[in-house]
Amino acid sequence: MIKVYHLNQSRSQRALWLLEELELTYEIVPYERGKESRLAPPELKVIHPLGKSPVIDDGGLIIAESGAIVEYLIETYGKGEFMPAAGTNDYWRYKHFMHFAEGSAMLPLMLFLYTGRLGEAAAPLHPRIMGEIDNHFRYMNTELEGRDFLVGNDLTGADIQNTYVLENPYAGGLLDQYPNLKRYVEAMHARLAYRQAVKRGGTPVFTPA
Fold this sequence. Notes:
Layout: E1 2-7, H1 12-22, E2 26-31, E3 55-58, E4 61-64, H2 66-77, H3 89-115, H4 126-143, H5 157-171, H6 179-189, H7 192-201
Parallel strand pairs: 1-2
Antiparallel strand pairs: 1-3, 3-4
């Protein structure tokens, strides 16, 4: 059975959602963020040296990084679903959005989160950070025009990767000016597998102290 070392309000939710979509049996080993630091507990370093979540254990094979976990689960258990056929145009679009989630879109959101703790000291950075967030969201909003999914006509790993990016902005009302993104997130939230993952793992929305 696959074990998921799951940290509340983290990228680990991607793994749970995909496991539910794949209808695989899995076990959650839960960890809680520190009440003051909001960081992962040191016990996670026993599982992986970085001490971060998610990490999965599939028969002794330990895999970290949510994107790598998503790709592993799809390629191992997907039976040809959740990703386009290799070499097609949609395959390369899929690869782009798999990497876009963490390589591009997540960085300004993390900067917004961390600089928010600095108060007025971060004010000079705020316009640049918000400009980058808007740049990425406008791009995604345009790419979803007339589409239900980022790639093709069915859910792929790219949707699982990028929905997590949009969770906190959606919860904070920041997607109201990006109608395609708002519609997209609400459609993902309506999926049975997504709702089952939230029931088992909790909300993915990160709430800093």
